[in-house]
Structure formats: C-alpha cells, structure tokens
Amino acid sequence: MIISNLFTDPHKMIIAVIYMLIIQQVDGNILYPRIVGGVMKVHPITILVLLLLSSNIYGVIGMIVAVPTYSILKEIAKFLARLYENHKEAQEVEKHLSE
C-alpha cells in the first residue's frame, strides 16, 4: 500500500506512514504492556524496561523471551520466599514446643 501510493499519490503515502507509526506506538507502548501486565501480573513499566534491555542485549529473540522468563523467575522467587517463611514458622513452633 505504501509503495503503490509512493508512485501514485505521495500525500496518501505520508498519511499512511504516519497512521502506521501512531498505531504501532500505541500498541507497543500502551496496549501490549497493559494486556501482558494484566495477564501475567507484571507492572507495565517493568515490561517496558524488560523489552528495552532485552532488545539491546539479545535483539528480537530477547524481546520475545524477556517477559515470560521474568514471570517464571518471579513466581519461583515467590514460591521460595513462601517456603522459607513456612520453614521459619515451623522452626519457631518446634522451638516453643521443646521449651
């Protein structure tokens, strides 16, 4: 569409490019972080930072893998923190029972 408009009507081509850039920016910076953040319970700013860092380090593959990897690691850390808290509580109960 853009290439055909370049030769037939450059004004339409410029409008199409501006339209595509606006849609891409809204999708990439507003919709995607909110949708993914809502589903995976990750803050939108965290998603933007993850995407920026992973794209600079690993490129497109890094951008695809960054948010799911972060979510998995976050859930593992939560699980281990709960496990540690339960272990501490069990030791305190055992200590009180032995006294």
Give the helix proportion (percent range): over 70%
Shape type: rod-shaped
> Number of helix segments?
3
Which value, in Å, is the CA radius of gyration?
Answer: 24 Å
The biggest sheet amounts to:
none
Structural class: mainly alpha
Q: What ranges have pLDDT less than 50 throughout 5 or more consecutive residues?
A: none
Please identify the oligomeric state: single chain
What is the residue-mean pLDDT, rounded to a whole number?
82
Describe the structure in your own words.
The chain is an all-alpha fold. The chain contains three helices and no strands. Helix 1 (2-8) runs antiparallel to helix 2 (10-40) and helix 2 runs parallel beside helix 3 (44-98). The radius of gyration is 24 Å and the shape is rod-shaped. The mean pLDDT is 82.
At a glance:
The chain is mostly helical and 99 residues long. It has helices spanning 2-8, 10-40, 44-98.
Top keywords for this entry?
99 residues, mainly alpha, 3 helices
